Amino acid sequence: MHICVIGAGVVGLTSAYFLQSEGHTVTVVDREAAAGQGASAANGAQLSYAFVAPLADASLPPRLPSLFLTRDSPLKLHFRFDPVQWRWALQFLRHANTRDARATTEGLLRLAELSREFIEPLIEGEGINCHFTRSGKLVIYPDAASLAAARAQVLYQTGLGSRQTVVTRAQCIEREPALHAYQQRIAGGVWTPTDVAADCGEFCAQLAQRIVQRGGDLQLNRTATGFDCEGASVRALLTTQEPIRADAYLLAAGVGACPLAATAGLALPIYPLKGYSITVQPVGDVVPLTVSITDAKRKVVFAPLGDRVRIAGFVEIGSLDDAIPPARTSALLNAMREVLGYSVIDGDVRPWAGQRPATPSGRPILGRTPVEHLYLNVGHGALGWTLAAGSARLLCDVIAGRTPTIDIKPYAYSA
Ligand SMILES: Cc1cc2nc3c(=O)[nH]c(=O)nc-3n(C[C@H](O)[C@H](O)[C@H](O)COP(=O)(O)OP(=O)(O)OC[C@H]3O[C@@H](n4cnc5c(N)ncnc54)[C@H](O)[C@@H]3O)c2cc1C
Q1: Residue 31's pLDDT band (cuts 50, 70, 90)
Q2: CA 194, CA 366: separation in Å to the nearest integer?
Q3: pLDDT tens, 107-122?
Q4: 65-96+133-196+271-358, superfamily in CATH?
Q5: Residue 305, CA atoms < 13 Å, CB-side half-sphere
Q6: So where are the chain's domains?
Q7: 116 CB less than 6 Å from ligand 1?
Q8: Best residue among 43, 51, 220, 249 to mutate for probing ligand 1, ranked by most atoms within 8 Å of CB
């Protein structure tokens, strides 16, 4: 088939790559001048296969007032007079219970495992240089209470096949000596040897090249404006240039997916959650970072990328522009100084902001739609890099009419 993929982020590109390897011809359309310029450009760089628990869980509602009212809180609400925001927020709160959080965690663990199975051979097989490193991941906790909650989650996930261990403060420093100066602020941690760090933006740029080398058509600087439908069937993708006709259309446009889906009569519950990162090169005689770290208190992640370090964090609900307030960059730089003791040369900090395409439940939406020829691969929220390859493989199963490798029901589109 000729399949038109809308969106050249990590989700659209991995989909295009695997569809091509199944023998399909692909056209990938993106409004930007290069691939991987959306949320995939400079994200936290963690392939976080074992940390997939959703943001909405039972512990969240009682913490909301303090989270929203504290200065420098990792979670911020920009209240808007916008029913779309209110609807999303209400649905999000409805999912903030143990039953839903567990259902999402179980589904995402399976999808993440499938992703691991496919992404690592892809990176190796295609010779993609994206600073892929089997770093393992260490999540550090500030006090006994948060460590106890983490221990309970580890016990629960052990039953689901995760390989994680709770480690002491001394073991945290042993695993990552760069944390030495911060040790008094660490009660303990959770160590996951199987998690990985890699640069998602680099991966996208190089994967796009491979797709083109194999005959794929990459249409950059071309904005999709909607679907031309006849009844419940897509006839063409409308763009700022001439329409594109294909046998199937895969919508993988991240936060840009909602208005496009609406033109085919589909309502997607996706809302942008803004986050920030900086990429820095530490100077001086420093202990290099070798492990992927998450500071659970600050909700900031640190990932090694060659001689640089990516530091990412913050979730802002309703900040829809791409501005980078200096206070966010300073907060990430402070986290770097305090947690790792690094310093950087002024001006050698690459600040970035991106919008996570989030569903209220934390589960992506993928597969068929009620509209003929139209498929979805959207809504990967905070885990798109981690889940991209598994989602793309499931989509290939659906398009080929095979029984999907894992149960696809949790990700099905529902009106
Ligand atoms: C601060 C931050 C840290 C993160 N850290 C991690 C992490 O450590 N690990 C992890 O797994 N995930 C992480 N994520 C999440 C991850 O980056 C996203 O889930 C993922 O990038 C989403 O990929 P995507 O392809 O769906 O969207 P995008 O990368 O946004 O791609 C969508 C593409 O569609 C294009 N597009 C949109 N509308 C149109 C249109 N109308 N016409 C043409 N083109 C269009 C856009 O230009 C864009 O290129 C993080 C996100 C943020 C913001």
Answers
A1: very high
A2: 26
A3: 999 999 999 999 999 9
A4: D-Amino Acid Oxidase, subunit A, domain 2 (3.30.9.10)
A5: 26
A6: 65-96+133-196+271-358
A7: no
A8: 43
Pocket test for ligand 1, best of 4, 5, 11, 332 (most atoms within 8 A of CB): 11
Q: Greater confidence, 311 or 345?
A: 311
User: If you write DSSP's letter for every residue of 305-337 in order, what string do you get?
Assistant: ETTEEEEEEEEEET--S----HHHHHHHHHHHH
CB-ligand 1 contact for 353 (6 Å cutoff): no
Nearest CA residue ID for atom 9, ligand 1: 46
Q: Is the dihedral of CA 280, 197, 124, 356 positive or negative?
A: negative
Looking from the CA of residue 312, the nearest atom of ligand 1 is 1
Burial code (b: 16+ CB inside 10 Å, e: under 16) for 114-148 equals: bbbebbbebbeeeebebbbbebbbbbbbeeeebbe
What is the pLDDT averaged over residues 274-295? 96
Q: Which of ligand 1's atoms lies nearest the C-alpha of 252?
A: 26
Of all protein residues, the one whose alpha carbon is nearest to atom 22 of ligand 1 is 384
- Minimal-distance CA residue to ligand 1 atom 44: 30
Among 113, 350, 383, 411, residue to substitute to test ligand 1 (most atoms within 8 Å of Cβ): 383
The pLDDT of residue 415 is 83
pLDDT tens digits, residue range 70-88? 877 898 888 899 999 999 9
Q: State whether the Cα torsion 298-300-301-307 is positive or negative.
A: negative
pTM of the entire predicted model: 0.97
